[in-house]
Amino acid sequence: MSALIGRRVVLRPLTLGDFEAWREVRRHNVDWLTKWEPQRIPGHPDPVEDRDAFAVRCSARQRERQLGTAYGFGVFVDGTFAGEINISSVQRGPFQSAYVGYWIDERQAGHGYTPEAVVALCRYAFEELFLHRLQVSIIPRNRASRRVVEKLDLRCEGLAERYLEINGVWEDHLRFAITAEEWETRRLELTDAWLI
């Protein structure tokens, strides 16, 4: 799979060679990120501290790409690892839908890298994977994540109560979405603003 190129970001699948940079960013951002993420499964090795567990994680992402069920990317700014973005739970058949998740190094937050990455991912999802719908689910109090979808003016579909287990608690999530029809209408606006 080739990289997805934005104006300032490059999205590409992570490899074992990214372990040191990924670990440094995850260690630095432990407080910034873990409050928004599911708890680690007890007894499973931590990919932040275990190179072999990170290798297994990379292999799992590669297998998901081969199966067409998910597409994970590292976000790189000036060649430096800065975060991750993914398309997950790809459903084909009449649904043709998937979920988008993302996180960014706190030191890189606020520069518009994540909205740029989301637009690059939308272009890939709608124009190469031919998906019909993407959804982003955000805990209402996660202002940084909400700012991303607000900058892109993604449509809010409402509140899903106790939607996902996050850090040990069933959290409500606001659901934002964009469809292929909306992408077609807004493609030039979004790519001109964020990618070209």
Strand content bin: 25-35%
The CA-CA distance between the termini, in Å, is 22 Å
The number of helices is: 6
**CATH architectural grouping:** 3-Layer(aba) Sandwich
Task: Please give a structural write-up.
There is one protein chain. With 196 residues, the chain is of the alpha+beta class. The chain is 37% helix and 32% strand. It is built from six helices and eight strands, in the order E-E-H-H-H-E-E-E-H-E-H-E-E-H. The chain has an eight-stranded mixed β-sheet, sandwiched between helices. A hairpin with a 3-residue loop joins strand 1 and strand 2.
List the SSEs and their pairings:
Layout: E1 4-5, E2 9-12, H1 19-28, H2 30-34, H3 51-67, E3 71-77, E4 80-91, E5 97-104, H4 113-127, E6 133-138, H5 143-152, E7 155-166, E8 169-179, H6 180-194
Helix pairs in contact: 4-5, 4-6
Name its key features.
single chain, 196 residues, eight-stranded mixed sheet, 32% strand
Short description:
With 196 residues, the protein is α+β, with helices and mostly antiparallel strands. It contains six helices and eight strands. The protein is globular, with a radius of gyration of 16 Å.
